[in-house]
Amino acid sequence: xxxxxxxAQEECDGALQVAVAKLPPSASLNMQNADVYYVEDFIExxxxxxxxxxxxxxxxxxxxxxxxxxxxxxxxxxxxxxSTDPNFKLKYSGQLVDMHYEYPPLLRDIxxxxxxxxxxTFNHVMLNLYEDGSVYIGNHRDNMENRVIASLSLGTxxxxxxxxxxxxxxxxxxxxxxxxxxxxxxxxxxxxxxxxQNPKSATPNNGExxxxxxxxxxxxxxxxxxxxxxxxxxxxFWKHSIPKETKIKGGRISLTFRQLDxxxxxx
Length: 267
Ligand SMILES: O=C(O)CCC(=O)C(=O)O
Ligand SMILES: [Fe+2]
Fold this sequence. Notes:
The chain is α+β, with helices and mostly antiparallel strands. It has one domain: Sandwich (Jelly Rolls), CATH 2.60.120.590. The chain contains 6 helices and 16 strands. Strands 1-14-10-16-8-4-7 form a 7-stranded mixed beta sheet. The protein has a 5-stranded mixed beta sheet with strand order 9-15-11-13-12. A two-stranded antiparallel ribbon has the order 2-3. Fe (ii) ion is lined by residues 140, 142, 240.
């Protein structure tokens, strides 16, 4: 029997079959068990401002209702969702997302530009509206089938936090998973390294699961016109959030482009 392969290794092989975004190595954040890029000046600020204003006027924004512990709660963050696949449906917190299949011309152009620059195609974009700093997104991981996730930021800069928090199953499948007790202690570790406002100051990139998990956190500001790309094994090992910053009065729109699995089409 051959040596058991790590999840990271298998995912890397899988990622070669599906396209990965092409970005310069200088944009890589060199995070352990992740493939994350940040391009601060992906588009000019003046263009980002214009796009922000135009997208704010879309008539497709709405506040989804979430089911939390059996109660219906209205999400503070407005969203607008589009798909290039006319049959594609998506559930979010148990509710069907209000999906639109006719892209407004600007959104089609933006998606085309992002696709061209990254060398990949997307079948879905979710717009998030953070009207001010009281609107946030809690710590979460995106679905595994989101092979490449590209998030374009427009408007007021907001803080982005990425926390190393491996899925239990990912560690269990790893060759060198540390014992359970130690893993739990590590994920709560107070000594978590925080690279405030500097996504590149970092621990070394291990690239795979052959090393014990290192507690780590990255915190930086998403500039107006910037792009974050997460792909490969990132969602298995890292969570992300945009915390509340109540002093912030300006608005922000993020456009999160995704490659959703068409097997999930719920027609
Ligand atoms: O607004 C952002 O940049 C992040 C949004 C996000 O994490 C999500 O939609 O899953
Ligand atoms: Fe997310």
